[in-house]
Amino acid sequence: MTEPRGKRAAEREMRYVQANRERVPTVGADDPATIASLIDAQVAIRPDAVSLVTQEGETTWREFQKMANRVSNLLLARGVAKGDAVALNMDNSVLFLACVVGISRIGAVVGLINTNLAGTPLIHCVGQIEARMSMVDGRALAAIAACADEYRKAVPEGAEVIHFGVGKAQAHDWFVDGDALMAAASDELPTCEPVLGRDWALYIFTSGTTGLPKATIITHQKFYYGAAGNAVFGLRARPHDRLYNCLPLYHGTGLMVGWGGCIFAGCSMFLRPKFSASALIREANQYNCNILVYIGELCRYLLSTPEDPLDRKTRITRAVGNGLRPDIWKPFKKRFGLRRITEFWGASEANGGFMNVFNKDETIGMTGATARLVEYSTEDATAVRGEDGFLTLVPPGQPGLLLFEVSPTSATSFDGYKNKEQSETKLIRDAFVKGDCWFNSGDLLRQVDVGFVFDIPHYQFVDRLGDTYRWKAENVSTNEVAEILCQFDQIEIACVYGVAVPGTDGKAGMAALALSADAGPLDCDRFADYVEAALPHYARPVFIRVSEGLELTGTHKIVKTRVVEEGYDPARIAEPLFMLDPKTRRYVPVDAARFAEIMAGRSGY
C-alpha cells in the first residue's frame, strides 16, 4: 500500500507540536500576564544578552527594561493613569517598543497610530480613542502641527504631545520635549496599580483600505497568548535565534507576531525603520538573522528584484507571516532556500486564527477555534440565510465566508472594537440555532487537500468578501485575478475591483495597473491576448487604467477607495484608461463618447 502523501513529514511535525505544547502557558484574565511581564521574565534570565539590534547598535534586555521604566515614570509624573489612552505615533525604533512597554506597564492603553496618517484620518484615530497624551517623533509632530487646532479639539482637555528627536522647537505650548523628560525620569520599576490579563493593552487600528480606521481592543491576555503561540509554533524560536523585522510596528504582524514572539522566546530581533527589497537579504546576512517575519506584498516585491548569488546563501531558513499568495509561494521558497513557511490567518479583532504548523505549501493551516465556512452573497457582502432562516455550510473545496463561534465562557470571547456599535456589526446572531453568536471575519476561505495531516482540516485564503464581485453570473475573486495579471511581464502591481455598468447585472471587473520601471507603455493588444488565454471570460478586466503609482498602506496593501470612486469616468481620470471592446476583444481608449454610450446602457456588455 502506498504511504499517504507527506505522512512522514506530518508525523515529524506532530511530534514537535506534542512535545512543545507545555511551552505555551495557560494564562487567565486575572493573571498578571502582561507585555511588561514578558520583558521582566527575560531580564531575570538573561539581563545582558542582546534583545534588539538596529543599524545604530545593540540594546540588552536590561537596558531596554530601564528605557521602558523611564517612559512609565515620565507618564505617571504627568498624570497618566490606568485606563487612559496614549497615542503612539512613531517610526520603527527601540524607543517605540520601550513606549509600548512603558505605557502598558502602568495600565494605560497604547493607541498604535499609522505613521502615514495626516489630517482627517489622524484626527479621527486620536479622537476615537480619546488620547490623553500623544508620544511622537518628528514626522508625526509635523503632521499634528499641520492640523493642530482640529487635533486639540479631538483629544481630552489638557492633552499633551510629547515629542522625541526634535530638540526644543515647539509650535504650541502643549508640545513638550520628550528627550528632556526621559533624561530626568527614573529608570527604576514604577510604582503603579496592578495590571492583569483582562486589562486593555493596545488599540490596533484596522488598515482603513476602504474607510476610516477602527480601533480594535487587544488585551494583555490576547497579546500574551499571541506572543507565546507564535514563538513556539510559528517562529519556533529559541534564545540563539534572531528575527529580521522591517514591518511597521503599528500593525499586529510586526508587533505581536514578530516582536511578541521574540520577547516570549528570549531571542533577539533586528529592527529596520521600513522595508527595503534591495537591502533585506544583505542585511539579514550582515546581522545574522535566521527568521523573517513577512506580509505577502513584501515577498512579492522581493521576488521582483534581480536575482543575486546571496539569495541562496541567506541565513534565513524560516519565514512567518500572512498574505503569501499561492502563485508566488513556491517560487519564493525556492529562490531564497527556505525550509519552513509558517503562514497564518488572523485579524486584530478576530477571536480565532489559523496557522500552518505542519509546514505545508499554499495553506494558512488549521485552527483550534470553532470555525465554519458558510454561503455568502457578493452583492450584499454578507452571509446568506436559507428558507429556514439559518446559514448554510459550503462543501469542502468551495469558498465560504469564515465565521468563528463567540462564547463568553471560553477563550473564543470577542473583545471587538472600542466602539461597541461597530463591534456589533461584526457579529451574526441566530446563525445555526437560536441564541448562538458568531464573529463574521469578512474573509472567504476554502478547505484544501494538503496531503496527510491526521484528518485535520486545512484551509486557504481566497479573498475579502467585499473584494469579490459577481459578473456574468459568476463570482470573481479580486486577489486571484490580480495574481494572474501580475504574471504579465509589464505589470508590477495590479489592483482589481468591481464597478457598476448601467444595463447589466452585478459588477464588471476593473484593474488599476502599475507597470514595471522598464516596461514602457502598456502593450494593450498583447495584454488582451494574455487575459483571454489566462482568464475565463467573466474574470477578464472590462476596464483598465495605467497608474504611475498606486496608493499603499504602511503594510503595502493597496488603498482602493480613490480608484473605486473614480470608476471609469475619463473626466475624473487623467491616466491612460481603456475598455475591453466586446466585439473585437481588444482594449480601446475610453473617451467621452464611449463613456456616454456606457452610461446610456449601450455598452454591449
Describe this structure in words.
- The protein is of the alpha/beta class and 605 residues long.
- It has 18 helices and 29 strands.
- β10, α10 and β11 form a beta-alpha-beta unit.
- α2 (35-45) packs across α4 (94-105), α5 runs parallel beside α7 (148-154) and α12 packs across α13.
Q: Would you tell me the structural class of the helices and strands?
A: alpha/beta
Instruction: Output the number of helix runs.
Output: 18
Q: List unreliable stretches of 5+ residues.
A: none
Gap from first CA to last CA: 54 Å
Shape: globular
- What is the CA-based Rg, rounded? 25 Å
Mean pLDDT: 91
Please estimate the helix content.
25-40%
Percentage of β-strand residues: 15-25%
Major sheet? 8 strands, mixed
What is the quaternary state of this protein?
A: single chain
Give me the side-by-side strand order of the main sheet.
2-1-11-10-12-13-14-15
In total, the number of strands is: 29
What labels describe this entry?
single chain; about 600 residues; alpha/beta; 7-stranded mixed sheet; about 30% helix
Secondary-structure blueprint:
Elements: H1 7-20, H2 35-45, E1 50-54, E2 57-60, H3 61-77, E3 85-89, H4 94-105, E4 109-112, H5 119-129, E5 131-136, H6 138-145, H7 148-154, E6 160-163, E7 175-177, H8 178-184, E8 200-205, E9 215-219, H9 220-234, E10 242-245, H10 252-265, E11 268-271, H11 280-286, E12 291-295, H12 296-304, E13 318-322, H13 326-335, E14 340-345, E15 354-355, E16 371-374, E17 376-377, E18 382-383, E19 400-405, H14 420-424, E20 427-429, E21 437-448, E22 458-464, E23 468-471, E24 474-477, H15 478-485, E25 491-499, E26 508-515, H16 524-534, E27 543-547, H17 561-566, E28 577-580, E29 587-589, H18 592-599
Parallel strand pairs: 1-11, 3-4, 3-5, 4-8, 5-6, 6-7, 10-11, 10-12, 12-13, 13-14, 26-27
Antiparallel strand pairs: 1-2, 8-9, 14-15, 16-19, 17-18, 19-21, 20-21, 21-22, 23-24, 25-26, 27-28, 28-29
